[in-house]
Design a protein that fits this description.
459 residues; mainly alpha; eight-stranded parallel β-sheet; 15 helices; 8 strands; 5% strand
Length: 459
């Protein structure tokens, strides 16, 4: 099996040196499924081993099957494949006949994985076994996966949702695609319970092309309007229509009203989330200056272990004296007054969100570690100069194709763009956005939080 594609059918990732894509050859269909699965996995592993770095595995429709999944992920967990695992952010396994055994292998790979951001398992039978689903859900909860796609998996049905959503607790999942998975109105209460709980941090929910029915969709929309503060895009279209849903005109009017309510709720959530995120980042800066005090001394040369943000700016003598006199005055104020001042700095944050930001800012161990001489993990090698150049925002001089590599570079990768061009480096900007989103999730400021509400009981 060769990984070459005719220029006519090239994907826009084909010229990306950090992407591995596979092609399903007709010759594999003439051998047994088990043998084809093994051959496909070994060819994918061979390509990975020849790459300096891999950010994206686009290996859909490659006849992997369960045996191939087990072989591939066993390699990625081995010392030989660890470098790929530590840099892989996108994994597409569409239409590979993955069942329960393959899903368990995927779960092992996802467990405690803080690098992988997107996982596509669309078009696979997967499993409705409760133990397998529980293992998969637990792996998601321990990861930082942002996007999960389970589209066109008609065998999942209601049984999968019953075992999956009630145990889904990851705070990092932003997009969940459950289109065309044969859901019925029976699971509408389960969906409502999830989207109205504090466990839901989704930006996008896709449930179209299912049999949720119009009344079921209206119930979900009402729940989102009243108790969900995270969703900014919801798709519930292409519903199965029951006879008791009314005639065509009544259904049209009902859906238009539901869409109006849903659109209003999503716009509300967008505005609130933007305000919360902006104010949380701004409050972090203020809180560093006000609450991070140099109380401990370092182990080298008796240097202060932490300093306030204001001292790092090296102000003039007069300004410095004012700061030194003002900061002790603020921390000596009664707690109630300090809280009122903080509330004025971030009025759209709840009290608990503000306290989490302040607690983070006051902890000296959360300061960036800038003095580490060696940032490279064990068993990794620095990127060669030509690879670093291709991972920057600039295009190749001969092909005009951008080599971004991925939207999240590894922690040991540094932007090699000229200083004046770093503001335009797309990979670097995406990495900065992700680091900010991880921090906002950590302090619970990724969505608007009611000051006193039912969601507090779940926290």
């Amino acid at each position: 099996m060769h990984f070459r594609v005719s220029p006519k059918f090239r994907h826009h990732y084909d010229e990306d040196p950090a992407t591995v894509r596979s092609v399903n050859h007709q010759r594999l269909k003439s051998v047994s499924a088990r043998l084809a699965s093994t051959i496909a996995a070994r060819n994918i592993i061979s390509v990975i081993q020849r790459r300096e770095i891999v950010h994206r595995l686009d290996i859909g429709d490659s006849t992997l099957g369960d045996e191939g999944c087990v072989l591939l992920f066993a390699f990625l967990e081995s010392p030989a494949g660890r470098r790929c695992k530590n840099s892989l952010t996108e994994l597409f396994l569409t239409r590979n006949s993955i069942g329960a055994k393959g899903l368990l292998a995927v779960s092992t790979f996802v467990k405690d994985n803080h690098v992988l951001r997107e996982l596509c398992l669309s078009g696979n039978p997967l499993s409705t076994n409760k133990d397998v689903i529980a293992h998969f859900t637990a792996a998601l909860n321990s990861s930082r996966l942002c996007t999960l796609q389970l589209i066109h998996n008609g065998t999942l049905s209601d049984n999968f949702i019953r075992a999956f959503l009630p145990n889904l607790r990851t705070q990092y999942l932003r997009q969940l695609d459950l289109s065309a998975v044969n859901l019925t109105r029976v699971v509408v209460p389960i969906i409502i319970e999830y989207v109205t709980s504090s466990r839901c941090r989704l930006d996008r929910l896709q449930c179209n092309a299912n049999s949720l029915t119009l009344p079921g969709a209206r119930e979900i929309i009402s729940a989102i309007e009243s108790d969900n503060h995270s969703l900014v895009k919801v798709n519930l279209e292409d519903l199965h229509i029951d006879d008791h849903d009314g005639d065509g005109e009544e259904r049209t009017l009902a859906w238009q009203e539901g869409w109006r309510i849903l659109t209003s709720a999503m716009q509300r959530n967008i505005k609130r989330k933007m305000l919360v995120k902006m104010q949380a980042v701004a409050l972090l800066v203020y809180s560093r200056a006000l609450f991070l005090r140099p109380r401990m001394r370092g182990v080298h040369n008796n240097a202060p272990a932490s300093t306030s943000v204001s001292t790092l700016n090296r102000p003039s003598a007069s300004i410095k004296s004012n700061i030194i006199s003002v900061l002790p005055m603020f921390v000596s104020l009664p707690t109630e007054i300090q809280q009122e001042v903080i509330a004025l700095l971030a009025p759209d944050l709840s009290h608990r969100q503000r306290m989490r930001v302040v607690a983070f800012a006051a902890d000296m161990w959360t300061l960036p570690q800038l003095n580490k001489p060696d940032l490279e993990p064990v068993h990794t090698t620095p990127l060669p100069a030509f690879m670093r150049a291709r991972l920057s925002w600039k295009a190749d001089a001969t092909t005009g194709t951008p080599y971004e590599g991925s939207w999240r570079p590894p922690v040991w990768w540094e932007c090699t763009c000229p200083e004046e061009s770093r503001g335009q480096c797309r990979s670097l900007r995406r990495w900065v956005r992700e680091m900010r989103d991880v921090w906002l999730t950590r302090v619970g400021c990724d969505i608007w939080e009611p000051e006193f509400g039912a969601q507090d009981a779940d926290l």
